[in-house]
Amino acid sequence: MKNDTKYNLENRRYVIGGAAVVLVLLFIGRLFYLQLIESDYKAWADSNAFLKKTLYPSRGMMYDRNGKLLVFNQPAYDVMLIMREIQPFDTVDFCNTLSITKQQFEKRIADIKNRRLNPGYSSYVPQVFLNQLSAREYGVLQEKLYKFPGFYIQKRTIREYSRLIGAHVLGNIGEVNKKDVERDPYYVSGDYSGRSGIEHSYEEVLRGGKGVEILLRDAHGRIKGKYEDGKHDIPPVSGKNLTLSLDIEVQEYGEKLMQNKRGAIVMIEPETGEVVCMVTAPYYDPNLLVGRQRGRNYNELLKDPAKPLFNRAIMAKYPPGSTFKPTQALIFLQEKVIDDHTMYTCAHGYTFRGGKPACHGHGSPLNVVAALATSCNSYFCWGLHDMLDRCKYPSVQEAFDTWKQRMVDMGYGYSLGVDLPHEARGYIPNSKVYDKIYNSRWNSSTIISIAIGQGEILATPLQIANLAATIANRGFYIAPHVVKEIQDTPLDTAYTSKRYTGIEARYYDLVQEGMKNAVLGGTCRTARLPDMEVWGKTGTAENPHGKDHSAFMGIASYNGKRVAIAVYVENGGFGATYGVPVGRLMIEKYLRGHILEESKWIEQNMMNAVVSPIIPWVMNGKENN
Length: 625
Known about the structure:
The chain is built from 21 helices and 18 strands.
């Protein structure tokens, strides 16, 4: 009995000791959680003694290739609040001061507290109540701010533009969303980041680094000055400036030429891959996506059936039409399907299929140089026929995939890697596509329209301009890019490295000769300019949804300066109607710097031409002059 009692006492001792240990561990765990994991208590303690104000850096500015300022910053002011510091105040007076309604006030407060919409919410942490006040609005509020405890002003900057052009390339900035905050710890709710264009592609370069200012509070929460004289403050680091490859004068001129039209103009400096201009029509005023009306304006632009937000230069996929024929000539020459003496016949069309595709009248038979000069459909159909059906390959599939790979090497079928978001890849099918459609029973006649850039073939204006640059360089190109220099930072090697097509340089000489003859006496005669060397290729792209598209691809040199260009005007008809004259004027503007008197009538016609009536989206209804 005595032993049982002793045993029970010992057991109790262990139980009590174990309970004490568990209790101590619970206290230690809770203390660890409160001090190292749970942030609200720390935030509460800090907010009683300090106010940590974020110092936002100045965003990097943008200049054109000649040093002209394009994008800069202007001061703006955000209304901030700390929820736990708000005390009863006259909300009617507050709303009237900010020109908002009581309903807007209540909704904004509710949105701030909603952790689903604002995952970083804490009642101790500053939150954005209203963003981007103007200097006038700031002045009015500043006088009354003492009446609204818990609110204060945060200085920011907003974008300003020297001219109302280039919106698709420059891009815009907007408030970050939940995914942005979760993906990058740099951002908190209420911050801004690049949403499109260069602003998006070079966000990390442009945004700089935030700073912090620590202000000391007294027992009543009033600001007494900087904590330890600013010893612990962190200054902001300004974003880096960018020098763009764009020529602001040429960009503006191109946008004027494309008024009341849909389409694009892309100009590239062949030696460097630098984009001299990238025009998309219709365009819009970049100021529309700045300030508190950004959301409303964006939704209006989004609903516009003309799609002014759509960057046609890099996102639109068009049939390239006859601008595609130089690629065919190069492939047939490289694969030894033809040589410079190979003659094919044309009887107003491809005779092997009874005159289809049709062709306009010109001499016959003809060689590859003459075929390019006259834009003969039949010649390139015969070339594709001989490559796929009568050449060295064991099957049509292998021959076609060789053809397709040559196209890819020349920059078609995949994105080129331009330093802008959302570039489309175009489309070049492979043999499996046709095997699936035709149950593996097909030949050149089945797909003959691809010989002249029709059928399934799709390309972006950027890819067409890049082809011109490749022809100018006789077999290589550098990935097109819009940023020429980054302050104190080298460019990505992707924009300095040559990409070779695998086509021998001597074959480019024949293509250049054909394009030169097209300007001297062929389909591009309007592009002929005194004292300038111009090579060109027209394109009239069939459009199943309406009138044909008008296209032009060209290369020009003047006083040691060269440029490659592509022009695409939707529903413009023949390539010579709009593509060639617009291309001629753009070449003159860039290489010569002005338009000759003898070209003024062409300029007037193109400026006044209405292909698709469009009202440009500009501020206050003013035209972009």
